[in-house]
Design goal:
This protein is mainly β. It has no helices and 5 strands. A hairpin with a 6-residue loop joins β1 (about 15-20) and β2 (about 25-30).
Length: about 70
């Protein structure tokens, strides 16, 4: 028996996140794979990236990611 895909999912490292830098107020969009994941059982896991404008660490909750936009059908 062959495996059949009923509904295609996505890989978690392709989730997109948006965050604002608290220092320079830049709005950032990045992938889960671009950030450093920190596990925190008390406050919840979060991702950290460096703002490309000013270098400040920007944190966002790890569960706030959105799946990548769907690919156009051929």
């Amino acid at each position: 028996m062959a495996i059949e895909v009923i509904s295609r999912g996505h890989l978690p490292e392709n989730d997109q996140f948006e965050a604002s830098c608290s220092n320079c107020k830049s709005t950032l969009r990045f992938l889960r794979s671009d950030g450093k994941l920190t596990f925190d059982q008390r406050d919840g896991d979060f991702l950290t990236v460096a703002c490309p404008v000013c270098g400040t660490s920007v944190n966002v909750a790890a569960n706030k990611g959105k799946p990548p936009p769907p690919r156009p059908s051929r």
